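Q: Second attempt. The first request was missing the SMILES, so the protein and zinc ion are both included now.
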Amino acid sequence: MSLIISGGTVVTADGRFQADVRVDGGKITALGLDLAQSGDKIIDASGKYVLPGGIDVHTHLSMPSMGTVTCDDYYTGQVAAAMGGTTTHLDFCIQPKGSSLRAALDIWHGRAKGQAVIDYGFHVAVTDPLPEVLDEIAGLPDQGVTSIKLFLAYKDTLQVDDTAVFRCLERARDAGVLTLVHAENGDAIEILMAEAVARGETAPKYHALTRPPELEAEATGRAIALAEVLGAPLYIVHLSCRPALARVREAQARGARVTAETCTQYFFFTKDDLDCLGFEGAKWVCSPPLREKEDQAALWAAVGDGTLSVISTDHCPFRFDTQKTLGRDNFTLIPNGVPGIEERLMVLHQAGVRGGHFSLERFVALTATNPARSFGLGGVKGAIAPGYDADLALWDLERPHTITAKTNHGAVDYSLYEGMEVRGMPVTVLVRGQTVIDQGRLITERGSGQFLHRQRI
Ligand SMILES: [Zn+2]
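A: Got both inputs this time. The predicted holo structure:
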């Protein structure tokens, strides 16, 4: 007995076509017309668009940060993801200072174990590059981890110096591991923040003003240069602005192994959103900060022309009522991060596809197919073809929905997109052929999601 997703329009990164999808043992085994045979279980997808489940390669669930912990755990964060049509995410495991990478991964596995409802993997962030820690990089692929992350910002907590960046890039290259960088110049930002506070400039808007785009561009260019010298693959996370984009574009034109993502919020908001009356602007505090209208236009162009190949969320949720308020009197104490794991696909479909920036096929490429290929999940996730996991989102492209924190499913108490009206949302979501969401209801068990052993890059 097979499962047949019957009568829908299948959409891939390359095109769309009418087809049934046959699923056996959690994998797609055939595409074609009229595949159902007697005894098969049928999911009626007529009138629906069948997309690969979304892949969000940049999330922070249950992550300690700035004296608190992101408010979504692996259960609430993944339920929110699934409700929004996302079936796989890659989360950041942060090495505690003095810890081994192995011990850090054990902590993160412990957080996810028994909680997951979608599939997940880890990037490991190297924050304390001791010699024995560098030696561990070669063994990461055997643990299913084929990406590391380095912070060039957050001085005295997460930031690493150029010696560490160079050494890590070299070790990662040799191990078949992709290096991700948070590219902002943390040394200069630290000075700008201290000077602002000393002048009494403590409101949320100063978060953006003390992290100018030039410092993102400088760090982006520096990371690219170090990677290029080594011939190491490099992935720039959450690219937000025109000068950083220019560095990536130049490097790609030279043939450097550089790819980059941006995140949903950078298309929708600007630094002016931090300048609300009262303290409300803290909701929009993330790093790099939200930029200008002109940067939004440049990002739309860059996801269209391929300079940016992935759109992720940097979902890093802190409640407004009890967590963002830690920085009420001083913007440097506002936990950095915004939520978006549930809204990503709906708002990008609305603004990106309906807004005429890219096709539905390109939407699939940016949010599922490219992330899978970039992170060692090619042939397994992110596409609809025989042999792939049956991670599918059935979209009703006409269904209206108003985004509001009241009906969102995560633990955070606000949505950046509050009140935004979209037309088009996922109504049924499957992970490896198992229905996880149906008509807005969660119908899977806690713990059904699996850790992904990813391939070498
Ligand atoms: Zn992040």
